[in-house]
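input
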Amino acid sequence: MNGAAPPPSPPPIKDTIDANSGRFEFLKQTLMLGLAGIGGVAALFTDPSRVPSDTFSKWVLVLAGAGLLFVVAFAVMGLSAYANLLTVSARIPQNADDVDKYSKGVRGHARVVIIALSLALAGTVMFAVNRLFAPPTTPEGAVTTAAGFVAKETKLTADMIHFDKMETDGDAYVVTFSVPTTGNGFTIRVAKKDGSVAQATQQKRP
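output
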């Protein structure tokens, strides 16, 4: 005997499955959380007035949305790896290499999900803080925001949109535009707090 220690034996299959059961629950919960988060982000785009107008808010919203997409994608792949782990563990004889491959897959996907969650959380927090502490908009800024909104909705250039008037209504500026080429009128409510479009209505002018 040369006295060398024998190589360590791999852990029993049951221990490997038990060790990954917690990650399985984690991946299930994060999958539901990610899908709910994507639904919340998608709800912003159901109404054009909810879409932020400033560049910073748009980018942090993209960061949060991308993080949530990665959460969902890698949570699904992690759950698939766990299902494959259960499948190869039930085979007789068992292939230790397959068990190790899928066990590492579960761990690897769970780590990516944690990173993606951190990115989504960072984007969400920055978006919320920016909206909460954004400097109040000026009347000139409200007109510019409203004109940009109307131009985007009508796909017309600024010189084809006619500014009619602007009024103050509580916590918002109410800006009215007319579009001579179409005969339509637009009334845009721009929030004083953060310069976002709070409401937009279109009227047919006589």
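quick obs: The two ends are 104 Å apart (CA to CA).
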